Amino acid sequence: MTYNKMIVFLIVLLSLQISGQDKVVLGEYRSIQSTIYNAPVTYLVHLPDGYEQSGKEYPVVYILNGDNVSNFANAAATLDNLSVERIPNFILIGIPAGNPFNNIIACPDRPGGLEKAEQFGNFLQNELLPEVKKQFRTNDYRILFGQSNCGLLTLNILLRHNELFTNYVIASPMLNWCGDYYFRLIENSVTNTEWLHKKVYVAYGQLDYEEVLGRIHEFESVIMNLSMPTSTWKFEMVNNDGHVPYLTLHNALLYFFSECTISKDKRAWSVDSLKKHFENLSRELGFTITPQSGVIFDLAMEMGGQKNYERAISLFNYLITIEKKNAFYFYGFGLTCYQMGNLKAAEEYLEKCLKIDPGMNRAKSLLEKMKAATNTQ
């Protein structure tokens, strides 16, 4: 998969025995001048496949400690892999843990810990989020993902600036540092429970640090014992994993977007039912969601292979309303029309394919075959 304008290279891939002439591009560094910190702030960006051509607005995942290459690479790979079939496409923003933030530990007994957390919240609200909105095509659906000490910072943002993000992901929060402070804060904020209705996914490893395991069950109990409904929160222990489980973001996204998957049952739905389902999801989540086009294409081709042409054509008609500029989808539509004997429609969609991609040889060959057959009749 190739991304234009991506200039951050994984030098560490040398250790993976990749040729010295090969380069794997992960993302792009961007920088803003922060008035709040009176310093430049560098952040990382990973754009979804097809961003430049789509014209669409995208939701955003913000990952703390995002200047850590392995963290950022894992998050980027997770988004890319899941967006093939299971979730919408996302922009990824990596926020550094170091300068000028200096590894914030959002605890009252750490010098300036809570003041630094509040300063960081103001930076997000007044500088970084508006900057990302200005520089990239984004909608208002945002996820904040924090790990370890940054898990405490994420919890702090959730409780004090909950309006900034739609959902929150917390991995292995170091609750032994100042769990009592956060438990009291949670219990004392039940009169202002907007944060409680956010979807929050909390993960920790079976082999996690004692600083996490020592209080994680108490944390879950504090949340679940609140008088308000807490069905939007999910706590999960990841078996045979340690601090900051590798699958945290993966599992969180599948939790947040569970209804986006075209399951076996949904594959049997009519196109009208699929449309209605995703329209309802769009209203619920606050931005337009459609099934991933590759899934609909595969299903349409499968129906064509089974000679269920009526369903295949219905799926292709839906597909080309989702993806209007994908030459291969128009080729598949033309091929299916050809197989069912509708040569006029086949010619129409093959020509649309070639208008998008004049170099698609398969479409050219099929059109030539059709014209040759017509000339011999």
Give a description of the structure:
Helix content is 48%, strand content 16%. The protein has helices spanning 51-54, 69-82, 113-135, 149-160, 175-188, 210-224, 248-256, 264-267, 271-285, 293-305, 309-322, 327-339, 343-356, 361-376, and strands at 8-9, 25-34, 39-46, 58-64, 91-95, 138-147, 167-171, 199-205, 233-238. A nine-stranded mixed β-sheet has the order 1-2-3-5-4-6-7-8-9, sandwiched between helices. By secondary structure, it is α/β, with parallel strands linked by helices. Strand 6 (138-147), helix 4 and strand 7 (167-171) form a beta-alpha-beta unit. The protein is elongated. Mean pLDDT is 90; it is low at 1-20. It has two domains: 8-260, Rossmann fold (3-Layer(aba) Sandwich), CATH 3.40.50; 264-376, Alpha Horseshoe (Serine Threonine Protein Phosphatase 5, Tetratricopeptide repeat), CATH 1.25.40. It has 14 helices and nine strands.
Summarize the helix and strand pattern as letters: EEEHEHEHEHEHEHEHHHHHHHH
Strand coverage percent: 15-25%
**How many angstroms does the end-to-end distance come to?**
44 Å
- Give me the secondary-structure category: alpha/beta
CATH homology-level superfamily of the largest domain: Alpha/Beta hydrolase fold, catalytic domain
Helix content: 40-55%
Number of helices: 14
Which architecture of the largest domain would the CATH scheme give at its second level? 3-Layer(aba) Sandwich
- Structural domain count: 2
CATH class of the largest domain: Alpha Beta
How would a crystallographer describe the biggest sheet?
9 strands, mixed
Low-confidence stretches: 1-20
CATH topology annotation of the largest domain: Rossmann fold
Strand order of the largest sheet: 1-2-3-5-4-6-7-8-9
Counting DSSP E segments of at least 2 residues, the number of strands comes to 9
Shape: elongated
